[in-house]
Amino acid sequence: MKNNQGTAIILSLVIVSVLFILTSFLVRKVLTNTAMMEKAGEEQESYALAKQGVLYALDKLNTWDGIEPDYDPTDWTPNEVEQGNWSDYSNYSLMVYKDYIPTSGGYTQKDGYITIESRDLPKKLVTLQAIADNTSPLLEYVRFINSDVSFLSLQGFGDSANGAPFHINGDLILTGANTINLDSDSGDRFEVSGEIKPTNSDDTVTIHDTAGNLSDVILDANDNDDDGYKCGFTRDASGNLLAKEKFSSAYDDIIQNNGRYFDGTHLPSSYDQSGTSPRYVTGNALLRWPLINHTRYESLVGGSGTPYYIDEISSNDESETWYDMTASGWIDDRTSSVPSSENTQSATYTSPTAILVILDGNGTMSGTAGQVGIDDGQGGEVAHNNVIESGEWRSYPTTNGVIYSPGNLRILGIIGDDLTPNDYKPIIVSGGTIYIESNLAKGTSGSSLALIAKDWVTLNSTHRFINRDVVNTSGDPWNNQSNIRGEPDNDGTTGNNQMDITVSFESTDIAVLDLGQKVTTDTIRLKKLNFPDAGGSLTLKVYGSNDDTASIVPGDQEFGSGYSTEIINDDVDFERTEGSYAFRYVKLWLENTHDSNSYPVYFDAVEIPLTDLNAVCFAQNKSWAVISGNISGYPFTVNGAISENQFEQSSNWSINWPSITYTHDSTLTSNPALPPSMNLVSLKRR
Questions:
Q1: CA-based torsion, 38, 42, 48, 51: positive or negative
Q2: What is the pTM of this model?
Q3: pLDDT tens digits for 225-249?
Q4: CA 253 to CA 226: how far, in whole Å?
Q5: Rounded Cα gap, residues 242 and 234, in angstroms
Q6: Which of 84, 312, 627, 674 has the most CB atoms around it within 10 Å of its CB?
Q7: Among 461, 457, 460, CA closest to 643
Q8: Is the pLDDT of residue 318 over 50?
Q9: Strand partners, 428
């Protein structure tokens, strides 16, 4: 036993040593893990601080209030931009390169791009490099929506023959079956920066290629793979519905055809043109929209009191009254009273706080091409009387094209002079709401118009029916003069809510009808016209006029040609071959050359169809909307671009206005007077 005492001591020392080593190892492991966790936490914090610097730079670039077309960060970074010196802030450092992008060989000049480098200031563990495109995306998308969007069942976008680009800077929530029509030949895109999220397991959206280059892609919540592309939705562990990671076999075709659908969370969505070969990059596209800077636009027009600064009546948001026909602004023009809640006849809405602006590109109203009329009392005229008088006409602004008001505006007219011809590109900016009161037509294909509103850009379709008594007549009397207002229950029977006249033999009759304000159109429509077979002895002509005398005077424009064909209870369009014209009165001219027979003519209503909206529309705080009234509309096309911060409140007007198609205007070009905006096309660690 005594001989084993030394062995026990040795064994004890070995055990203690092993325990010490294990303990040291565990302690070291814990310390290492703790250090790694601390480093990871510091790196996450550093990444967040560095990204904060990028977002700060984007906001500063977007809200820059200078009047020059270029972005200039020198006022918030104390160093010269091109030198690439770091500027320190409280939590990050910034370095900005204007018109340069990073390449493997250093920085290379690239006009239209800005490189932002940002690193966390406390630890300097993370440096982020962002490449931003400073071309306004207002002109690259028909619809750009900054908020989340919900598609309800059977909702479609575009039509079967003509698609359009569409971008949602948020999530797309689906309910039911939906269709998106895109044309791959035109490079149409439907982009979602966030995620497409169905609400139920059987929700779908079909992406249809109108050009026929690609098969339909069906995104289905239950991912039953009917289309073969496995591009539907799956559920995560919590039961949430998620989109697939990629299109599988269809992926290459979609990229190569530069069209179709992109989901920023699951598919490429950012189009990076910083390299020699443009490419889509994975990840959310950070698109930062600016505020309408009143100082900037007031400076652009030369300040208050200048011809292109419109003093406001008000910039109040009146949207709560648009769909309540008993509210302020609505009127029955015949009775000059507010319509009753049971009213079934066409009534008009006119904002009491918006100043009228009329574009007269071809000079048919003002006598001089390239004029804009503003009902602001210039030249000693009467302000706010709904009439553009001679002293209120002025030439289009030529320096930067901007017309600015801090208040609400009402717009209609013709852009561009098709007689000379000359292109015009005006920009109209409102600190409130812009009401589109009638067609905004192009006189020339190279002309364009930007409408920029702090709140709403809304199409006011209620001025399209004549619902006033006959202003003036010559010849035979007109009957039922009060009932020409587009009632939906008219049956085309003479004497039943119709306007009618019996034209005596060897006589000419003229009736003057008043729309109440100017409209712009290339078409005048007679609803449910009944015209007899008079053997060529009876002729009907339709004129647009700005004169209320019962005769055809110089300046009156004939729409279509003389009409003498029998028709029974149908709509007839009289189209002006020279294009749109702005006018207030419609003159109906009837001539009977028969030597003994008289002929009755009757119809339900005179309508001014809305045929053209050619404009870039930007609603900063609200959205695009339609004031439809209570008389059903018809398919309507927006040719241009619409950008908004909220999805339109279509439930308020979609019943009366069945469909609007948004198409892309390829002639739109960038203009330095549009709001600066910045698209972050790539963001990576340096």
A1: negative
A2: 0.84
A3: 444 333 444 444 444 444 443 334 4
A4: 18
A5: 5
A6: 627
A7: 457
A8: yes
A9: 403, 451
